[in-house]
Amino acid sequence: MGSLFRSEEMTLCQLFLQSEAAYACVSELGELGLVQFRDLNPDVNAFQRKFVNEVRRCDEMERKLRYLEKEIRKDDIPLLDTGDSPEAPQPREMIDLEATFEKLENELREVNQNAEALKRNFLELTELKHILRKTQVFFDEHEGGHNPTESMTRALISDETQRSFGPLQLGVRDKPSDQLEFLPCFVAGVILRERIPAFERMLWRACRGNVFLRQAEIDSPLEDPSSGDQVFKSVFIIFFQGDQLKTRVKKICEGFRATLYPCPEAPADRREMAMGVMTRIEDLNTVLGQTQDHRHRVLVAAAKNIVKWFVKVRKIKAIYHTLNLFNLDVTQKCLIAECWVPALDLETIQLALRKGTERSGSSVPPILNRMETFEDPPTYNRTNKFTSAFQTLIDAYGVATYREVNPAPYTIITFPFLFAVMFGDLGHGLIMALFGMWMVLKEKPLAAKKSDSEIWNIFFGGRYIILLMGVFSMYTGFIYNDIFSKSLNIFGSYWNVTRYSASTIMNNKGLQLNPDSYDYYQVPYPIGMDPVWQLAENKIIFQNAFKMKISIILGVIHMLFGVSLSMWNHSYFKRKLNVFCDFIPQIVFLTFLFFYMVLLIFIKWVSYGPNPGHFGSDEPDYVKVSPYCAPSILITFINMVLMKATPDRPHCDVYMYAGQSGFQKLLVVIAVLCIPIMLFAKPYYIMREQKLKTMNHEQMHSGENGDVGGNGQSAQTSEAQKASHEEDMQEMFIHQGIHTIEYVLGSVSHTASYLRLWALSLAHAQLAEVLWNMIMRNGLIQEGWLGGIIAWAFFAVWAVLTLGILVLMEGLSAFLHTLRLHWVEFQSKFYVGQGHSFQPFAFEAILDVASQSVEE
User: Fold this and answer.
1) To the nearest 10°, the Cα dihedral for 343, 348, 352, 358?
2) How far apart are the C-alpha atoms of 818 and 422, rounded to whole Å?
3) 3-state secondary structure of 338
4) CA–CA separation, 606 and 798 (whole Å)
5) Residue 230: strand pairing partners
6) Is the CA virtual torsion 392, 393, 399, 402 positive or negative?
7) Residue 465: its pLDDT value, please?
């Protein structure tokens, strides 16, 4: 039970392992996850350690597995993940794993290379097929007797090219157009569709208009064999005259990465080539299908085991990384390690070591010895799935100093309660509680999905916090009698009209609800606020006073609890001086000033009421206990601190109880006297103790030497000690002064900081009311079937804004303010938070980090 309220007791141990059993023992400790190893070779380079070759082998295996995983995901093959974590294989099994991965990688690379070559050949044949089909149109036109120049100029050149460069012409320029001879010099190929416009312009400018280009789009996309992407291409054919233009055209095609293919001039040759191309395409389709089937079978077989293989390789790699932290003894037969372990788990760790020794077949048992050290042990707070989220909130501020009081158990209650004070709405709290309950009930399937959404992971990690915040918000919303800015009339209103008639009330809209409108024999509303206050015009005035005082009461109690926890720290660490010089003055100062203000609030609530007529029949007694004579707590507190007299008012008592003035002055004097005690008592006591120790040391030394002045070395040593002592005392005075000023001023500012409970609660309630009045009320005005449609539409808008603004945004705001109240106002009273966390060697944590890095 003590480990829940304070970190685990840690011990430093020295571990001796036989070389043959070291791997198996470390493997068992990794499964256990309770040992943090220290690096005994901090000055040794990572590449010069004993097991660096094994680590490199694991890196190579992991690279091969990543390649296999990439290919598996490329084919959308699901990975088989049973959730089981296999044990780390023995070192001799590494050879089998390496051989398996090498075989799979080589086979898959060979299949991929063959498939890429086949796809490239298939692409070339497909492009050649389209070339033969598309260019056949031109040759058919030429053989049919059409004028190629005019038809090409009209139909084969894009409109944009004609507008820019004018009509293209072929043949001898000094002959008439009907006598032009078409010269069968041409090249045909395929180019990316988006490069066609630039390709046409380059041909025109480089060849000075002495070429003719015709292009046609390929309707279906083609697969790029290198990247696997689908690309759109176009077939083109270029006519020209002469070898010089031929060379120039081919260079331009090469620059635009166009692929040229042979295209026969004779129709019979083209038909014969087309038939041969189709036959080869059919054969390639068959071979490609068989290749893809073989590749799919290889990947499916690998997908069944790749998750387990990853776990095994990462465990092996983690073990060898850990073994590199160990030292070798002189005989090279024993490994020496140092590790931090929880004292309560020593027997469990020894059992794991024995199990590892038995697995390795070694006959020499491991030796685990506890060591004495002056180092600060790591902080280890044992948590479960419920407390881990609250512990994370505390550790985000700072990891607790070793064996310091852990605020997490108290935060489990105080955090959702203070949140609920600001977020008090029964409806909004119900939405939050249902969301948290859903995540808790669906915990296992949601955790198995392993989403890479950071926002979702934050919500899911804090599911128990969200559930408790929703439940507590429902409670405070029930106390406030506030549900979606409306009230619940459960017990019926206990308010009635006692001073005015019905006609007076109906004709005077300025009348406000008076709290004294309860009969003498009636009891107040049983739980929370009377629902009639939701309709009152002075609702804000009434709730302001109530919530403001509640915020001060909760804040002072919260701070007093924090100061009380510091007493637990002082007593555990046996710091009696801190108890008398820090804790007692602090608790007295906070109690005599601020807790007394809380008592004044309760005294005012008890002494002054809205319906005091039964106290007496005469008028003065009626006035003394009426709201008119009720003093302001803030003014009373200020006058108390300044020791000013409370101004007298007619028909009213100056003070709330007899002897209040003298008692308040006594409290202020005692509280002020606590400040110099906090400031000087501790440094003075330490300085006095050190002086006594120095005098005793000098007397003992003078007794041994007979004469103090006769020993020059002793005098120099004494002077050095005095100088060091003065520096230490100066630092102590400065530190104590800062601590005292921070506490005194912080008591005032922290008390005022708790007023955010009142401010955010008021803002949340008013925002909910504004949202209802502006949207939902307007949707309920219309009657009939049209009113149903309008109400449905307005409800949709109101629900979206309620979830987005009031639940999410307001919930986040209240969460952050609650976090600040715990980190600053509460934990600053007792929590140092200067420790370092316990980071054990655990396979579970290593695998989680590896999986997250892969997802990112």
Assistant:
1) 120
2) 9
3) strand
4) 42
5) 223
6) negative
7) 97
Backbone dihedral angles phi then psi of residue 653, each to the nearest 5 degrees: -80, 140
Q: What angle separates helix 539-572 from helix 596-607, to the nearest 10 degrees?
A: 140
Q: Is 278 helix (H, G, I), strand (E, B) or coil?
A: helix
Q: Which of 317, 336, 315 is nearest to 327 (CA)?
A: 336
Taking the C-alpha atoms of residue 795 and residue 778, their distance in angstroms, rounded to an integer, is: 10
Euclidean distance between CA atoms 97 and 189, whole angstroms:
49
For position 594, what pLDDT does the model report? 96
Q: Which amino acid is at 35?
A: V
213 backbone dihedrals φ, ψ, rounded to 5°: -115, 130
pLDDT at 620: 53
What is the b/e burial string over 370-405, where b = at least 16 CB atoms within 10 angstroms of the residue's CB?
A: eeeeeeebbbbbebeeebebbbebbbebebbbbbbb
Upper half-sphere CA count for residue 558 (Cβ side, 13 Å): 31
β-pairing verdict for 334-342 and 36-37: antiparallel
| One-character DSSP codes across 341-407 | EEGGGHHHHHHHHHHHHHHHT-SSPPEEEEE---SPPPB-----TTHHHHHHHHHHH-PPPTTPBPS
Q: Which residues contact 756 (CB under 8 A, 6 or more apart)?
A: 422, 551, 817, 821
> Residue 800 to residues 114, 250, 786, 793: CA-CA distances in angstroms?
56, 64, 22, 11
Q: Which candidate, 762, 742, 754, 760, places its Cα nearest to that of 821?
A: 754
Q: What is the pTM of this model?
A: 0.81
CA distances from 770 to 424, 766, 773, 798, 801 (A): 16, 6, 5, 11, 12
Q: What six digits make up the tokens of 511?
A: 């009348």
Q: What is the number of other CB atoms lying within 10 angstroms of the CB of residue 767?
A: 16
At residue 131, the pLDDT reads: 87
Strand partners, 11: 341
Domain chopping of the chain, boundaries: 2-94+299-371, 110-288, 388-484+755-837, 575-707+716-751
Distance from the first to the final alpha carbon of the chain: 39
| The 3-state secondary structure of 660-726, one letter per residue | HHHHHHHHHHHHHHHHHHHHHHHHHHHHHHHHHHHHHHHHHHHHHHCCCCCCHHHHHHHHHHHHHHH
Structure tokens of 838? Answer: 């316990």
The tally of CA atoms less than 13 A away on the side-chain side of residue 477 is 28
In this prediction, residue 224 carries a pLDDT of: 85
Q: For the chain, which residues score pLDDT lower than 70? A: 1-2, 138-184, 332, 498-500, 502, 509-510, 515-523, 611-622, 697-698, 701-727, 854-856
DSSP 76: T
* Rounded CA separation 107/97 (Å): 15
DSSP 486: B
Distance CA 297, CA 299 (A): 5
pLDDT at 771: 92
